[in-house]
Amino acid sequence: MIRIRLKEVLQQKGMSMSMLSHKSEVSFSTISRIINDKNYSPTLNTLERLAKALNVEISDLYEHTPDN
């Protein structure tokens, strides 16, 4: 299973969801859904835009976790 780490990366960068939305041009609702809905699968394009805005690699935005 893949877990999106956007909330953690935002905290590390000291950035709010609103700031990220503005900088990445990804809607606030999409960012909120990525953070709060564990079943939501963002597109690669969205992950690329978020990673660029956060100045991180796409691989920094997710981690592999064991299936439960």
Description:
The protein is mainly alpha-helical and about 70 residues long. The chain has one domain: lambda repressor-like DNA-binding domains (434 Repressor (Amino-terminal Domain), Orthogonal Bundle). The chain is about 55% helix and about 10% strand. A two-stranded antiparallel sheet has the order 1-2.
Give a topology summary.
Elements: E1 2-4, H1 6-13, H2 17-24, H3 28-36, H4 44-54, E2 62-64
Antiparallel strand pairs: 1-2
* Ends distance: 9 Å
Give helix and strand order, one letter per element, not per position: EHHHHE
Low-confidence stretches: none
Number of domains: 1
Cα-based radius of gyration, to the nearest Å: 11 Å
Number of helices: 4
CATH architecture: Orthogonal Bundle
Structural class label: mainly alpha
The dominant shape is globular
The chain-level mean pLDDT equals 94
Largest sheet: 2 strands, antiparallel
